[in-house]
Structures are given as C-alpha cells and as structure tokens.
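so im writing up the methods section and need the Multidrug-efflux transporter record in one place, dumping it here so i stop losing it
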Amino acid sequence: MTKDGLLKMVRTGKHLTFRQQIMLAVSLSVPAILAQISVIIMQYIDAAMVGSLGANASASIGLVATTTWLFGGLCSGVSAGFSVQVAHRIGAHDEVGARAVLRQGLVSAFIFSLAVAVVGVLISDALPTWLGGSESIHADASAYFMIYAISIPVMQIYFLSAAMLRCSGNMLVPSLLGVGACTLDVIMNAFFIFPTRTITVLGLDIMLPGFGLGVVGAALGTLVAFVISAVAMFGFLALRSKELNLLHEHGNFKPERRTLQRAVKIGAPMMVQHAVMCSAQILTTVIVAPLGTFAIAANSFAITAESLCYMPGYGVSDAATTLVGQSLGAGRPELMRRFAIMTIGLGMVVMALMGLVMYMAAPLMMEVLSPVEQIQVLGIECLRIEAWAEPMFAASIVAYGVFVGAGDTIVPSGMNLASMWAVRLTLAAFLAPIYGLQGVWMAMCAELTFRGLIFLIRLAWCFNHKKEWIHKK
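--- predicted struct ---
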C-alpha cells in the first residue's frame, strides 16, 4: 500500500498492522533523511568555497552564524505554530479548516518576518563588535549578516510552505525542493564569490564568469537561491497540494483570534527556546572568539561537518511530527505512542551510524572544508569528541518532534533551555581556558548526552500521565 493510503487509514480510524506502521514511519522519514544529507553535502561545497578564500573569510561568516540560527529559529517557530494545527485538522478530516489555518498563517508569518528583518538590518553594523570578533573580519561579517536579514521574509515563506506540506504528509516535494535550493545556492555562490576565471576540463580551457564579491557574494548567492526556491515551494503548496490547494475555495486571509492563540501556544515556547538557545550559542561564540581566528573558523567548519550526523535526525523528527499530529487529530493515542517509539528508535540508529562515519572520516571532512592545516587539526579533534554524543542527541531531536506533533511545546522547550544553559555553557566556560576549543566541544558532548536522557524520561512520563493528549484537536 502507498504512503497516502496508509495515512488515509490513520485518519479514518482503520487498523494498521505493525508492518504497515513501520512502512509508514520509514516512508515519511527516508525522503527527509536523504534530503537532509543532500543539503549537507551542498553546504559542505558552499563552506569549501568560502574556506578557499582564507581563514578571515571563514571566520567572518562563522562569527555571525549563531545569530543567523537565532533569526532562522524564530521563523521556524512561527511556521510550527500554524503547521501543527494543519496536521491536527487533516488528521481529523477537516481539510477546509486546514486551508483556513494556512491562509491565516501566511499573513501572520509574513508580517512577523518583516519585523524580524528590520531588527536584523538595524543591528548588522554593531553585531561583530558585540560578538567580540577581531577588527579584520568586522566589515565582511556585518555585510554578510545584513544581506541575510534582508532575505528573512523570503525564508519565512519557504519555511512555512515546507512545514505545511510536511504536516499534510507530503515529505517528497519539500525534500526535493530543499535539495534544489542548496544546489542553486552552490551555483549562485560560484558566480557571486569568485571573479571571472578560466578552468581546464579534459584539456579544454573554459571561462567561468564571476563577480568576485567574496563573503558578500556568498550572502547574495544564498539570497537569490532562496527567492527562486520559495516561489517554487509556495507555488506547489498553493496550486498543487491535494490537501492544501488554495484553489479549492475562496477564503478569508484575516487571522482569527482562536487560530492565533493556538499558534502562540504552540509556537511561542519554540520561539523563546530558539531565541534563548541561540543566545547561548552566541555566548559560546563569545567564549570561542578569544581563542583566535583559527579557533573561530575551526568551530564553524566543525559545526558544518557535524551537521552530516544530526540533520538526518531532524528529517526523522519531521516525520514524527506529522505522524503524531495526524494520529492525535484522528483521536488515536495508542497509534501515536507506537509512532513516537518507532521514530525515536529509527533516529537513534541512523545518527549512531552517522556518528561512526564522522569519527572515521573526520580528517577527510575537514580537508574538504578548509586548506588551512591549523583549522583542520582543531576540527578533527572536535568532531571525534562529538561523535560519542550522536545517539542521545538523536533521542532529544526526535522526541522534541513528537512533542511538537502533540502540540505540547512548553515543558520540552524549557528542558532544552535548562540543558543548554546549566550544562553546556557552564562546562564550556570552565573547560575552554584549560583545553581550548576542544574543551568547548567536550562540554557540548556531555550536554547533548544529558539532554537525550531527560527527553526520554519526559516522554515516558507523558505516555503514562498526560491524558489530555488524547483529547487534543
């Protein structure tokens, strides 16, 4: 039976065998996992392009990277506030209501993103100074972040459209368009970062045009790629989606109080979590910055390299959110429980295997990202420390996706915050002066292991005590 047929069985209350449940969980997870891996490969190429410009160029982007995550996380929180409601409505066979939530979400999210973009542009000039970066990388870091801030409304539409499609059960299209966005990013960066040059292929000299804008070119290339991809993602959602096609009927785009209240209840804790956790990551950057330009660049590249391991976990988490959300909307708590356990187990297995790959391939990964030997050595040591945390990191990522699907985000968000601030930052501040950048990554490894453990404990408690999950709509 097809994925759509299995999802229909979930919504209509029909019995699914254990094999069918596994098939459905895997069929939703695999496209997202493959897309995430493809995205990371493209990000590797992207990072290698900037890395070829030297340590200062790499450090200028690495300095503001955590702040870009902060702003991107706010947009993701808004998207979740509306997309989870869509999953519940579709699970309850209320597709008209799902499209109503979509229309209201589009207007609300776009207005929010415009406000965030204005804040980003206003702080872009002072941000490198606040983060403690050296004067040599200030101009590039500031320009990169300002262009990123300008792109936020476009990114918001992209994120919201992708989240809506995933929560409707369509993992394939957002996955394919995500790969397309990263491919476009690499192509655009090739033109914007480097000057016009001649390369030799099979003995033939080929001239490649380019603007030679360096770090600024990397930001512009990403902006152009996101504009094209956002148009494609929203176009499919609004015109081709079986469940959410806006051509089905005319509707009001004015946000309703009840929908906004529900979106705030789901999305606000996630946004606060993203803001506070990214603030903690920014503080980590402040801890790393005094260790020097090589440490800043190595930290940034190691984070990019590590994403090869944890981004597949986010793919499984997306599947968990969809399955839990639709099962709950259909009033099937036992099925929700089984999907939660299946997806968490799948995520832990996948990320354990990826952690092993990362440990073995760390030298090759860092060599691809940077030609600078000092950066490579630091990055290899950091990756091999982090590899040990990947299975429990998976537990926290996928369990959080389960909570999001249930619309229960307040306590899990608080758990993420407490773990980051009480464990990671405290340990990092203590270990960095002793062990340097490696000490920061030791703290990260310990904290992610602790976080996975408390998420598993919390989920087990909810299965036994949180009866209101059964009645959520």
